[in-house]
Amino acid sequence: MKVRVLGCSGSIARGCRTTAFLVGEHVLVDAGTGVGGLTVRDMRAITHVFLTHSHLDHIAALPLLLDTVGTRRAAPLQVFALPQTLDALRQHVFNNVIWPDFTRIPHPGAPMVQLQPLGVGDVFVVAGVTLEVLPARHSVPAVGYAARGDGAWWVFSGDTQGQEPAFWPRVNALQAQAPGVGALVIETAFSNQEEALARKSGHLSPAGLARELAQLQPKGAFPIYLSHFKPSEGATILAEVRALESGFDLQIVDLQTVDTLDV
């Protein structure tokens, strides 16, 4: 299964796009500004979008995606998320103020997009991709995802402050069952200098990341890809992670250096 890293930055700058992953050809996980790097043909091929939460850096391109290909689609785009995330989209995005209500356009019975609720533990199968909803702890209701095709699992934490008791047991369970986990994407949004801000905003620092990765069993079984660096802090965050890395038997990779994960 191929996972294209369309965007993995915590914000925008030249060469930095916010979170979006294309899993196979038809499944989009989060819809940040990275979606803008797709061709119209690629956008049109997307049938399902799975959102981790409601924050702008993860949904910004969803309205524009619909504006680009909504009328070219044979069926409504299916957007799955927690009920609280869907409520935020209805109230604050598709409200005919910020953006047209594409849940009722061009016709209520045949809209461009349909919003579908999900919950932790739900499993979906879309175009040969199995996707499981994982728990996450953030400043707003949030989830992560695990996805696999014919091979190993690709695991995405979503935005997280850690300390979610059910996340690592599930990741360890996926690893224990063949074919195991092939890659884990986890955020590290702030440097250790801003640990207090990281906690208040529901994110990880390198110190917080170390506490989280200590729960992996076994360690070193698959690469760890770090995402969500703030563009102004990326070098500092990565240096702090490298300083901690010697204490772990782990392969840690800056996700911004990767175009596609093959798992």
List the helices and strands and how they pair.
Elements: E1 2-7, E2 20-23, E3 27-29, H1 40-45, E4 48-50, H2 56-59, H3 62-69, E5 77-81, H4 83-92, E6 106-107, E7 110-111, E8 113-117, E9 123-126, E10 129-135, E11 143-148, E12 153-156, H5 167-176, E13 181-187, H6 195-201, H7 206-213, E14 224-227, H8 234-245, E15 252-254, E16 260-262
Parallel strand pairs: 3-4, 4-5, 5-8, 12-13, 13-14, 14-15
Antiparallel strand pairs: 1-2, 1-16, 2-3, 6-7, 9-10, 10-11, 11-12
Description of the structure:
- The chain is built from 8 helices and 16 strands.
- By secondary structure, it is an alpha/beta fold.
- The chain has a single domain (2-257), classed as 4-Layer Sandwich (Metallo-beta-lactamase, Chain A), CATH 3.60.15.
- Helix 7 (206-213) packs parallel to helix 8 (234-245).
- The longest helix has 12 residues, at 234-245.
- The relative contact order is 0.14.
